User: Fold this.
Amino acid sequence: MQNRDIRQLGINPNHWYVVARSSEVKNKPLSVKLWEQAIALYRDSKGQIHALEDRCPHRHVKLSHGQVIGDDLACAYHGWRFNHQGECTAVPYLANNQKLPTCTLRHYPVIEQDGFIWLFPGNVETKHGKSLQPMGIPEWEHLNYIATVSVINCQAHYSYLIENLMDMYHGHLHQDYQAWAEAALEDIQEDANRVDAHYTAQSYYKIDKIWSISQLFFKSLRRLHPEPLNVSYVYPHWVSTLGKDFKIYCLLCPVNETQTKAYLIHFTSLNAFWRLHKLPIWFRRFVKNNLFGSAQKLLDGLVLQDVQMIEEEQQAYLKHPIRQSYELNRTLVSVQRLMRSQVE
Ligand code: FES
Ligand SMILES: [Fe+2]
Assistant:
């Protein structure tokens, strides 16, 4: 296994993956794909989220074309209905002398938390599975954090994305978009489930004045100052902090061997404004909601540049799978070791 090509590595299914944003699943089913598995997400009459294999057992069309009726999902084709356990509950034209088909669909454990839908594609009933919780993003609801979300859709194996996110020397690519410069790797810690790489960097932004947010738009307001830049691969997701002001998550949904979806969530902290908690909650919520997406241009710009590089790497690999590449950042050795050990 040790020699297995990292670009053909599977995923460890015994983790919580992120398959959608909460806001993407309204009153219609949503079709998502996680590591070759087509899954239909839908909400029942109480708004509770469920996940079924996206395949009607009758004629194998996608259940996600159908509609939610009460608490069941009804197939678009002949209207067979299924409950959230994947059992057939009704067939509109069932004759009196006929029994309901006993077919069952796979259903997935799914949790809605912090604005996202987390799904467990492995066996949650094992001791290991029961003890695992979605990683969660506590800043999502916290009134002191302003969020921006960017969706990554790249035609590449997830390892390219994680390596991109863990290798801070690629700041070179981003130039104007980057929030920091001059990253230098200090040390790496790793265990069975995560790799933490500690860099130092020069940050451009400091969030300590009421007008600090304008640094996003006016370069002249930015002042370089040293900050710790930490990046962590918490399998299968990624999280990073730049000093105390910024935190970024990348929540992964590997689609297949050459396609990866991910959600990049950027938080700007308002913790430096220590008087903030004295303001009324409704006002703080108003500020949080109104500033949502304030780093959108920046984040989307970064994603565009990264995705181009990642996809080119994948293309080059597909053309010449055994061509050697050169690596000087030892973080990536640790990252690849973790990916491999997770699927062994
Ligand atoms: S294919 Fe789904 S009900 Fe017939
Ligand atoms: Fe990047």
In short: The CA atoms of residues 157 and 257 lie 5 Å apart. Helices lie at 127-131, 158-166, 171-174, 281-291, 296-319, 331-343. The first strand starts at residue 17 and ends at 21. Residues 164, 170, 174, 302, 306 surround fe (ii) ion (ligand 2) (CB under 6 Å).
